[in-house]
Structure formats: structure tokens, C-alpha cells
Amino acid sequence: MLKLEHVSVTFHPGTQLEKKALTDVSVTIHDGDFVTILGSNGAGKSTFFNVIAGKIPVTSGKVFLDEEDITEQKEHIRARQIGRLFQNPAMGTAGELSVEENLALAYSHSQRGMFSRAVTNADREFFAEHLKTLDMGLEDRLKTPIGLLSGGQRQAVALMMAVLNPPKILLLDEHTAALDPKSAHKILEITNQLIKQEQITALMITHNMKDALENGSRLLIFHDGRITKDFSGAEKSALKPEDVIHFYEV
Ligand SMILES: Nc1ncnc2c1ncn2[C@@H]1O[C@H](COP(=O)(O)OP(=O)(O)OP(=O)(O)O)[C@@H](O)[C@H]1O
């Protein structure tokens, strides 16, 4: 369970550049939730993720993961329990290293808290077995430098890197936005498959309203640094794009 209590973030406080990015955000994300997140540009969605990941400090408020207060915990420590994917698949993967070396780096860090690119035969088999479930032929490209893969293939590997040792929380930060429609669809399909298979608690920021409505079990809408709507269950299922666009302004 992830809980934010009265979290506010103000950038450059007390200066002319002062900007309140989050204002008194309180929310509980339950185990097994798959939360999609919508909101206009500058609404505070990425700041919300940065607070959860420990990339930026809160100005006030608290963050708890499974009852543990992680408000002051450093980003690299949280990274063992909180996975994150970005719009650009190049972020979080090392282009010059092979697919299997990238997987080994992620796996060793999540398992033992240290980075090792060494790959044993058992690792190779384990990685191939997992990649096979994606049905993209990536199990035959273990030795390929990841920088030579297409954006969609690279994002699929990044996704696998994030879930090989399933994190408590998976943050998906517009992770399909830079892909062509077919690849974006495939990555979203794989995302759903892995979340379900590994029972991961996930949050996904998207600007694609259809994706936000058709995926996940809960929808949060951000506006001006606050969560202004929180839909789940049948209420979420009944939502239509024309309902949602109205909430961007509220
Ligand atoms: N490091 C920073 N320094 C100063 N202001 C910032 C910083 N990061 C974000 N902001 C500001 O905080 C507000 C919220 O930004 P944030 O990136 O969280 O919005 P967002 O909802 O993710 O937007 P988008 O959909 O455009 O990615 C914006 O006004 C932004 O300009």
C-alpha cells in the first residue's frame, strides 16, 4: 500500500519563480490497484511520480510504503521497491550494453542492491524464458546491443527489466507516448499482461484518454496540483471521454 498524506511541493519558494506543483495531495493506492492518471499539462502528474520515487523532496506532508515512512528515503534505495518507466525507452536502459546485460543490471540491483552486468547461463535461460512470454522474438536477441532495437522493442525490454523482480509499485510515466500506434498498443497489452501476471500495483500517466479509460481499475484526474477526481469500479467503467474532458477544467 502506498499512501501520500497532505503532500505539497513548491518549487523555488519565496522567489519570483515560486511554483506550487502539488497542493495538499492525500491518496491511498491499495495493493493490486492499476491506476491511470490524466490531467492537463502542468497539473502536477510527474511531480506526483517524482515524490513517490524520491526524485524530489516534499515541501510538506508524508509518504508511506506499506506503513513505512519513506518520506526521507533516498531515490536509489526506493528504486529497489519502486520501478519506473519513462516516455523515452532510452532512459533506464544502457544503449551500448546488450539486452541480457541490461536485464542482468536490473535484476542484480533489485535482488541484491548492487549492479552487475555479468550473465550466467542460468540467468540467460531465465531472461529468455521471460522475454518469450512477450511474443516479440526478443529471446533471440539477448546479445544485441539494446540501442539497436526499435523503440517498442526497447520499451518492452525496459518493462521486463522493471518487473523481473516485481516491484511493490510500478510507475509508468507516459511510457507509450513516443511509440508508433501499433507498438504503443503492443506495449500496453504487455503492460496489462505483466501487471496481471505479477500482481503489480501500478500507476500510469497518459495523455491518451482512451487508454486511461480502457485500462486499469481506478482513474485519478489531476488539476492545478490537486487530485480533483478519483473513479474506480463500475463508476470508472461507465466513464466516456466526453465526461472526462469536462473534469480537466473543474
Ligand atoms: N524542477 C522544477 N522547477 C520548477 N518548476 C517545476 C519543476 N518541475 C515542475 N515544475 C512546475 O510544476 C508544475 C507541475 O509540473 P509537472 O511536470 O508535475 O506537470 P505534469 O502534469 O506532469 O505536466 P505534463 O503533462 O506537461 O508532463 C508545472 O507548472 C511545472 O512547470
TrEMBL record:
InterPro entries: AAA+_ATPase (IPR003593), ABC_transporter-like_ATP-bd (IPR003439), ABC_transpr_LolD-like (IPR015854), P-loop_NTPase (IPR027417)
GO cellular component: plasma membrane
Pfam families linked: ABC_tran (PF00005)
GO molecular function: ATP binding; ATP hydrolysis activity; transmembrane transporter activity
Ranges where the ABC transporter domain occurs: 2-249
Record flagged with keyword Nucleotide-binding: yes
Keywords: ATP-binding, Nucleotide-binding
PANTHER family: ABC TRANSPORTER DOMAIN-CONTAINING PROTEIN, IMPORT ATP-BINDING PROTEIN
Protein name: Putative ABC transport system ATP-binding protein
Species annotation: Catenisphaera adipataccumulans
